[in-house]
Amino acid sequence: MSENSLANSSKLLVVLTSLPNLEVATALARALVERNFAACVQLTEGIQSIYRWKGKVCEEHEVLLSAKTIASKWLEISSFIQEQHPYDLPEILAFSPEQYEKQFGKWVESEVNSKS
User: How far is CA 52 from CA 33, 38, 49, 56, 90, in A?
Assistant: First the structure.
């Protein structure tokens, strides 16, 4: 692995998905942290989603899950969310912040790479 790709693999990644209720979101959040896919997961209730599904406009109340991880965990975390998610086609998005506090990034990296 080149030095550049190694640096990118430890870059902070924020993974988002929406879930139907707090119970399901909490279970997934705990599983992501327990399996070291994420160092921290935040849940935001009260999301109102309006979308088109199979030709029909739908409206739902959802919970937004935001997981802090690193780029090298993307394939694992996205696969796990896909397997555990109750929706047929879950939204799974990842963003790499341009800037973030270095100590926080190091903490996230150490947590997702720990063996405990």
Answer: 32, 30, 10, 5, 14
